[in-house]
């Protein structure tokens, strides 16, 4: 079925059969067991434009047959048996569970040219090393000296990877050859948005909590006590105490000094003398969510602007399928300005113009400060909203995070606004077939992955072709049952979309009504006019 889907993708892109087609793909791994102790993992590859799952790889750390033979055979007998079993052994990975995604990605990329495909752009989640394992896949093939025709007709294609490829080998390629064959990474914007919460969690741990006790106070107090004890001994011989009384006094003194140190322990405070979290002007859970959401919206809006600009240019210039390469540097600067506005807008500054310099201007701007420039003084609201923003001390604290999240190299990977939602969807299909709470072997996991790819690409009716190939008779009742399941799934999806749209419209109406009520409150006030 994958070959049929590849033919569909070729026809959609008007690509000839004898030409290697460059694709943008999304790759993600999922594990049988929660945590990092899973014995089985699955890596799915989905083509970004069509949404088809074109390949998958099941990675296993266990072979049930090998374990059974080890219990019944001697070491020599097992080694002799394993030579015939090795080619069909279920154990395909000896590393950690976290490395399964990297191994699966490597195998999928290695066999891509056999299908006449080259996965040029890879959408990743940024929390795995899968990209680094496939970045130079096609360059290593080029260095190996294989031609395209040899690659497509060679059954031993999996041996082309040269593990010893290094910087000296790469220097043999021209910049054009390197750019044409290197795999380009793109980031899932949903995962990039999560980086805001990660940064803020780190800052919270660093700037909140208690200060470390000042240990030198304990030593200074003990030293002062000893000096006073010696002075008392020299001044009065008549008041000497027994050794037991001295030990008791020293222990009491040590206990009292410990209490002194404990009393001096206090909460961390920022440069303005206030704590990191708290009420108005401080970092709260609500503000953390607001910063993360604003950053995510900024990326989506700016990427949408880039896409809409591309469509306009395409319409005006050629009226055809010719691809117009936009100025990426200008697009990155636009996205950077949007993202900086998402953060700086919510931090107070003495210079209000500098605070809102990156915010969009105009009467319809989402920024209340820029919008207030186009309304009468009685309708201005930014002076009220500004009191709820973060105090100026947070500018220095959040600046490293802002610089990191608005780095051009990161934003360049987010220009197209791609996500891994399709991968998350097919992952859920797998574990709806096989429960993570129960044990299943390698064959069950691999079978579930194959069935999930069919369901994801064609729906339940996709099983008809599988049944036909397997020699299973297709009755009218079976066909009706499959079509009914697909119909129910589509209706459920439509209802979900309608509910989401209704919720969105209701929130928009509530927001407009709240703005109207706020404007009406300004029409009356003691001494206002």
UniProtKB/TrEMBL annotation:
Xref: InterPro entries: Mutator_transp_dom (IPR049012)
Region (Disordered), start-end ranges: 225-253
Residue intervals of the Mutator-like transposase domain: 17-136
PANTHER family in the record: CCHC-TYPE DOMAIN-CONTAINING PROTEIN, KERATIN, ULTRA HIGH-SULFUR MATRIX PROTEIN-LIKE
The name this protein goes by in its record: Mutator-like transposase domain-containing protein
Natural source organism: Rotaria magnacalcarata
């Amino acid at each position: 079925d994958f070959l049929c889907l590849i033919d569909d993708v070729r026809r959609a892109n008007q690509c000839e059969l004898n030409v290697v087609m460059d694709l943008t793909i999304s790759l993600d791994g999922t594990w049988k067991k929660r945590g990092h102790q899973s014995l089985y993992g699955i890596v799915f590859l989905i083509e970004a434009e069509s949404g088809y799952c074109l390949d998958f790889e099941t990675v296993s750390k266990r072979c049930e047959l090998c374990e059974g033979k080890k219990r019944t055979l001697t070491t020599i007998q097992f080694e002799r048996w394993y030579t015939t079993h090795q080619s069909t052994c279920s154990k395909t990975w000896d590393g950690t569970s976290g490395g399964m995604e990297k191994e699966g990605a490597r195998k999928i990329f290695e066999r891509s040219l056999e299908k006449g495909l080259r996965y040029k752009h890879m959408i990743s989640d940024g929390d795995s090393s899968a990209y680094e394992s496939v970045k130079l896949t096609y360059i290593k093939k080029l260095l190996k000296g294989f031609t395209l025709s040899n690659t497509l007709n060679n059954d031993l294609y999996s041996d082309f990877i040269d593990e010893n490829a290094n910087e000296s080998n790469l220097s043999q390629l021209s910049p054009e050859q390197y750019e044409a064959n290197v795999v380009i990474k793109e980031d899932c914007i949903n995962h990039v948005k999560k980086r805001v919460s990660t940064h803020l969690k780190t800052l919270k741990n660093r700037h909140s909590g208690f200060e470390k006790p000042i240990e030198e106070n304990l030593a200074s107090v003990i030293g002062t006590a000893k000096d006073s004890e010696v002075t008392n001994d020299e001044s009065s011989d008549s008041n000497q105490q027994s050794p037991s009384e001295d030990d008791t006094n020293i222990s009491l003194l040590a206990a009292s000094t410990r209490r002194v140190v404990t009393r001096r322990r206090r909460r961390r405070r920022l440069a303005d003398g206030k704590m990191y979290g708290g009420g108005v002007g401080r970092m709260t859970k609500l503000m953390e969510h607001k910063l993360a959401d604003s950053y995510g919206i900024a990326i989506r809006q700016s990427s949408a602007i880039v896409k809409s600009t591309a469509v306009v240019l395409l319409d005006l210039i050629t009226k055809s399928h010719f691809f117009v390469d936009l100025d990426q540097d200008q697009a990155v600067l636009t996205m950077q300005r949007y993202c900086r506005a998402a953060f700086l807008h919510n931090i107070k500054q003495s210079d209000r113009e500098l605070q809102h310099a990156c915010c969009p201007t105009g009467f319809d701007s989402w920024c209340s400060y820029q919008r207030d420039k186009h309304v009468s003084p009685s309708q201005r609201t930014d002076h009220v909203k500004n009191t709820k923003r973060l105090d100026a001390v947070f500018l220095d604290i959040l600046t490293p995070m802002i610089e990191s999240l608005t780095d051009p190299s990161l934003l360049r990977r987010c220009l197209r606004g791609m996500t891994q939602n399709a991968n998350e969807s097919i992952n859920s299909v797998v574990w709806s077939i096989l429960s993570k709470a129960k044990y299943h072997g390698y064959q069950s996991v691999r079978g579930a992955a194959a069935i999930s790819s069919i369901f994801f690409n064609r729906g339940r009716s996709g099983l008809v072709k599988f049944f036909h190939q397997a020699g299973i008779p297709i009755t009218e009742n079976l066909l009706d049952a499959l079509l009914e399941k697909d119909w129910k799934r589509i209706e459920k999806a439509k209802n979900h979309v309608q509910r989401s749209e209704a919720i969105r419209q209701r929130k928009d109406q509530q927001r407009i009504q709240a703005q109207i009520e706020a404007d009406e409150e300004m029409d009356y006030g003691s001494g206002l006019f």
